[in-house]
Structures are given as structure tokens and as C-alpha cells.
Design goal:
Length: 428
């Protein structure tokens, strides 16, 4: 949808909501549909080709409105008052789960107790998973020893993650009062199963109870990937809840050529992916799938109708359209990496698997920090730096849907221009 189409379609939606408000008395406060009504009206899988906005818009009145109690600014906790809100979320997340080829057990349509929810962010997904794992572990400990208080049981629990995991894991453990062991990653930024198993065994020997492990597919700093197929069996062996944080990189796994990154996901208890990061869905939209229904899926009682925008995007791009976008972004990232490689002043940090390119000048950290500072004050491009194993570097990432080669070339020309000034002054 280009800017003109968006202006026109947005205007139509404002008219739709205004008409709804004007004619509110002709509608019933409670929808007259039976549970499961939406499943009969929507296909079981996302369309492979994109559809027009007109056909999506037609379905809003035909398919969605019979199951809602207000216009499009929902805060509906109740299945009775807004079944469309709950049912569309279940359907859209099953679509996405199938696109990611998640095991059936994670889906509502699967035979086990799996399910999913849309949350506001990856941090919330980790927090909900951790709290669920904590609750199950405390119940189990108190079953074995009824004298144990909740607090005494809680004191025994330990969670694990790697030094490359997003800091929201640390925050979740602070909120959840579970102690966290941060383990060193290997030279690629991944956590080895041997390191995890050794830490678990050490804690078991001290009488502690390993409860939760957060793996990452696409770390924030360098887009490294934990090996789920190796880490998963360790967690299963010791009864540890394994959560996979695939906030950014998970979206790429809708392409068959990147799906290998999720190999081993069948060993995990929960996984989250943020379509707002790389699947063209507006902020906020993080999908959390879990094998074991949490007692509480979210902190708030009310909820927004976030599945609408996910459903719109999946229908309007289709699976093929979204795969195409991911592939174009990865291709652009690889083109940028080629530019970096072709300039002997620079080096790449790590592999370029998806849309992130990490690079630095072949100089000390302070020269790279100077490059970053100068780019920041120049203000034409914005690069967020990071460091890995003591090396400071810059991160170039392709994200907005409209990015083209000319934008990448422009960014590279700015980096070159600023670098010329720095290296000249370094040489003198
Ligand atoms: N996990 C990863 C891998 C991330 O890259 C980020 C944010 O950049 C987060 C978690 C936190 O995401 P949110 O802001 O949606 O909570």
C-alpha cells in the first residue's frame, strides 16, 4: 500500500468508525454469535498470495463486526462481549505458528494444550513465561514438602541465560524474584549446551532448583543464534522450562531457507516472536506460544484488539509477500556487508545471516567510538553501537519496509565520508 492508498483507506476506516458511532443504537451490546463462530468463516491457513484491502475491509463488517461489542478501540477481556477479539487472535496466531512451522503442540488447532497470545513486547513474553515456570516449580516443591513456605521454595529457584540475552531477562528475574545465573557465550555469541549443563549440575549439587532457561534466536548485539536442538535436551533432562526469545529473527523463519534457525524448538516450552520488529506489523505485537497454559496470560485484564492488524498484514501481503520482504532485506544487508568487506579499513564482526551487519574500523575501540560519535553528531544516519568480547563496533540494520539499495549506498557514503576525516587525523 503506497502513501496515497493508505491515505484513502485510512479515511475509509475513519468513516466506518464514525458511522458505527452514529448508528450505535441499531447494534446490540452483546453479539449474537456462538463460541467458535469465527473458525467457520476464516480459512485455517494464511493466504499464500496477498489480497486487496477491499476484500479485507469487506470482511470487517461480514466476519468481525458480528462478534464485537464496540468499534475498533477494544479493551475487551470477555469472550462473551467480544468473541471476535479472542477468536481472531487464536486464528491469526495459529496462521503465524503454521508459517513458522512450529510443532502442532504449540497451536490451538493441535491436539495438546498449546496456545498463544499477543503481548506488548518480548519482555512481557519472557516475564509471563518465567512467572508460569516459577508457579509450577513452587507448586511441585510444596507438594513434595508441605512444610515449605512459598518464600522458602522461591529462594531455591534459579534461572539461566547467556551474556548475550537481552537485558529484559534480567528485569523479568528481578520482578519475578528468581535468581539468575548469566553464563558466558562462546566466540560466536551462542551458549553451549555444556556450559548450561555444568551450571545446572553445580546448582543441583548446592540444593538449588533449576527452573527456567531463556535461549535467544537472533541476539540483540550481533544476531547470534543459540542451538535449540542441543540446549533443549539439557533442559528436558533437568525439568527446566526453556523459553526461546526470537523477537527479531523469528520473523525470518517464515522463509524455508531460514527455518533451520528454529530447529529443536520442539524441545522448548515457550517461544516468542515480535512481528512488530520485522513482519511489517505496527508496534506493538509480540506473539507468545506455549505448550503449557499459564494461569495468567497477561498482567492487565482488558486487552487491545491487536490481532486485527496482524490479520490485515498477513492477508494483504500473503505468506509469499512477507517472505519476499524478508529476503529483500537480507539481500540488502548482504550488499552492505560486501561494501564493508571491499574497504580494507573495515572488518565485519560475526556472520551476516539476516538483516544486521556488525562492522568496525580495524583500529582500537577509541577510534571506533570516535566514528560513532561523529556519525551521531552528523545526524544523517543512525547506527546503534554495541560491543562483543571487548570489541566496540557499529550495527547497521535493514528494517523499514521501504528501504532500497539507494538508501544503503547513501548510508555507506556517509560512513565513508566521516571515516575519511577520522583516518586522516589518525595518520597525522
Ligand atoms: N529480545 C530481543 C532479542 C531484542 O532484540 C529485544 C529488543 O530489542 C527485546 C527482547 C526486548 O523487546 P521489547 O522491547 O519488545 O520488550
Amino acid at each position: 500500500m503506497d502513501a496515497d492508498e493508505f491515505r484513502r483507506s485510512g479515511g475509509e476506516m475513519v468513516d466506518f468508525i464514525a458511522d458505527y458511532l452514529q448508528n450505535i443504537r441499531q447494534r446490540r451490546p452483546l453479539p449474537a454469535v456462538s463460541p467458535g463462530y469465527l473458525k467457520k468463516l476464516i480459512s485455517e491457513e494464511a493466504p499464500s498470495d496477498g489480497e486487496s484491502w477491499e476484500s479485507v475491509k469487506d470482511d470487517i463488517e461480514k466476519v468481525i463486526m458480528p462478534g464485537v461489542s464496540s468499534a475498533h478501540t477494544f479493551r475487551e477481556p470477555l469472550l462473551a462481549s467480544s468473541p471476535a477479539c479472542t477468536e481472531l487472535e487464536m486464528i491469526a496466531l495459529d496462521w503465524l505458528g503454521k508459517m513458522l512451522r512450529l510443532p502442532q503442540d504449540f497451536l490451538f488447532s493441535g491436539e495438546r494444550q498449546g496456545g498463544s497470545i499477543i503481548l506488548g513486547g518480548a519482555s512481557e513474553a519472557i516475564l509471563i513465561s518465567l512467572i508460569s515456570a516459577r508457579k509450577a516449580a513452587i507448586n511441585k516443591l510444596r507438594c513434595l514438602d508441605p512444610q515449605l513456605t512459598n518464600g522458602q521454595a522461591l529462594d531455591k529457584l534459579v534461572a539461566y541465560t547467556s551474556d548475550q540475552t537481552h537485558c529484559c531477562m534480567e528485569k523479568s528475574c528481578l520482578i519475578g524474584l528468581v535468581s539468575l545465573t548469566i553464563l558466558p557465550s562462546d566466540t560466536t555469541g551462542a551458549l553451549s549446551w555444556e556450559t548450561l549443563e555444568a551450571a545446572i549440575c553445580r546448582d543441583l549439587a548446592r540444593g538449588l532448583v533449576p527452573v527456567f532457561f531463556c535461549a535467544t534466536i537472533g541476539t540483540t548485539s550481533t544476531c547470534a543464534f543459540d542451538n535449540l536442538a542441543e540446549l533443549g535436551p539439557v533442559c528436558n533432562k533437568y525439568g527446566v522450562w526453556m523459553h526461546v526469545d526470537a523477537a527479531y529473527a523469528g520473523s525470518a523463519c517464515i522463509c524455508p531457507e531460514f527455518r533451520y534457525l528454529l530447529d529443536g524448538v520442539e524441545h522448548c516450552t515457550s517461544i516468542s516472536v515480535s512481528p512488530h520488529k520485522w513482519l511489517l506489523v505496527n508496534y506493538d505485537c509480540t506473539a507468545l506460544w506455549t505448550l503449557s497454559h499459564p494461569q495468567h496470560w497477561q498482567v492487565n485484564m482488558g486487552r487491545r484488539f491487536r490481532s486485527l492488524k496482524l490479520w490485515f498484514v498477513l492477508r494483504m501481503y500473503g505468506v509469499k509477500g512477507l517472505q519476499e520482504r524478508i529476503r529483500q532485506d537480507v539481500h540488502l544487508a548482504k550488499q552492505f556487508a560486501q561494501m564493508v568487506k571491499a574497504d580494507s579499513r573495515f572488518e565485519l564482526i560475526g556472520d551476516v545471516t539476516l538483516g544486521l551487519v556488525c562492522f568496525r574500523l580495524k583500529h582500537c575501540n577509541c577510534v571506533n567510538e570516535e566514528l560513532h560519535e561523529k556519525l551521531k553528531s552528523d545526524r544523517r544516519i543512525h547506527l546503534i553501537p554495541s560491543s562483543f568480547k571487548g570489541k566496540f563496533f557499529l550495527r547497521f540494520v535493514i528494517c523499514p519496509a521501504s528501504t532500497q539499495l539507494q538508501d544503503v549506498s547513501f548510508a555507506w557514503s556517509v560512513i565513508n565520508e566521516i571515516t575519511d576525516g577520522i583516518t586522516r587525523h589518525c595518520a597525522t
